Amino acid sequence: MKRVIIIGASYAGLYAIKELSKNKNIEILLFDKKDYHYIQVESYGFVATKYSISDVTISISKYIEDINSNIKFHKEEIVSFDASNNEVFSSNNTKYKYDDLIIATGSLTNFPPQVPNIQKYSKGIKTLQKASIVNQSFDSIINSVVLKEKSSKNLPYNIVIGGAGLSGVEVAAEMAALVKERFSLINNDTSNINIYIVDGMKTVLPNMDERLIHACEKRLENLNIKTYLGAFINDVDENTIYLNNGVKIDYECFVFTGGIKGVTIDSNKTYEVNKLNQYIVNDHLQLKGEKNIFVIGDAAEVIANKKYMAPTAQLAIQAGTYVAKFIKNEMSYKYNEVFSPKSNGVLISLGGSYAIGLVFNKLFIKGYMAHVLKHFVTYMHKSKFKKLKAS
Which candidate, 377, 382, 383, 380, places its Cα nearest to that of 365? Predict the structure, then answer.
């Protein structure tokens, strides 16, 4: 029986498991230091207190139980691997042999090293622990305004989102929409809660379709979100963000969403990575120089049609499924095509029941219809991981 070890219960890792489990001649060992999968695409709703922890997590054990196959889950951190001897080593010094290794370790927030103190004073949302801190901070600010702890002194609460990409605008819009909704119900003045977006790029959603950019700008404006674009962060202290154009922004909560950094693992060889610390892989997602080691999800640099593919959940899911099929095909001596990811478009939540998107990268939609479609896509995604109760 072939043994496949998967490091990381990420989107890519879990989809690889689902596909591999269809072959009963494959033994699957999954390793992760956590016993849950964090649904990062739903993080905007969690940090804005719209969703609970149970809405954005999946039990790994329950997921495996539902598949009911040759899968063993080890709640252990893999700290290194030896490609020469086909071995991985856990944090408790246990050694495991593999026939094929899949690295699906994901990514963390990429704090710019040239900005002093940004990691110290800002909060990321790439892990459940960090997102929980943002959730608690935002909830505390809302409750403070309700109790008029600062409004009596006419002092504002400033929430700053660093990064105007997809995650940044989703978090900012969801927070602003919730503030607007919450306080309209009690006829309270929300003017002392300010939400800002800061980014060195000159537009929101950089490098995306102009229709998405324009619609996003209008939605942010309607939600009274102020943007500082084309201005990089020079420094941060415990109370103030300093921009390179001389602007200073005092803040109570600073959430940084600007970019990712791949998570790599120590090994007996040195492997090439890009500037985002992602492993360089070939057209079959094999680690450069290795035939039985694959890298999928945010940890891999994916090039398709000579173009870098930005990490997304959609790309990770396709990569996980592809590598699993590749391994199964090799067992049956079938030919494997190169990895050729396809984009089905993008859907972006912008607070409440409003979203924007491109369906199959062509049809532009916005408003409630886009929100319903995104909700449906998310529902279908979750149903792949766990059995949903009938409503």
Answer: 377
CB 37 within 8 A of CB 17: no
Amino acid found at 254: F
Assess contact for 251 and 267: CB atoms under 8 A: no
Q: Is residue 288 part of a domain?
A: yes
pLDDT in tens, 214-243: 999 999 999 999 999 999 999 999 999 999
> What distance in Å separates the CA atoms of residue 301 and residue 176, rounded to the nearest whole number?
34
State the chain's maximal CA–CA distance in angstroms.
Answer: 73
Q: What is the pLDDT of residues 101-145, one digit of tens each?
A: 999 999 999 999 999 899 999 999 999 999 999 999 999 998 888
Query: Tokens 């201005």, residue?
Result: 231
Task: Decide: residue 215, CB within 10 A, 0-12 exposed, 13-18 middle, 19+ buried.
Answer: buried
User: Which of 256, 281, 307 corresponds to the end of one domain?
Assistant: 256
Q: Do residues 133 and 212 both lie within one domain? A: yes
CATH of the domain at 200: 3.50.50.60
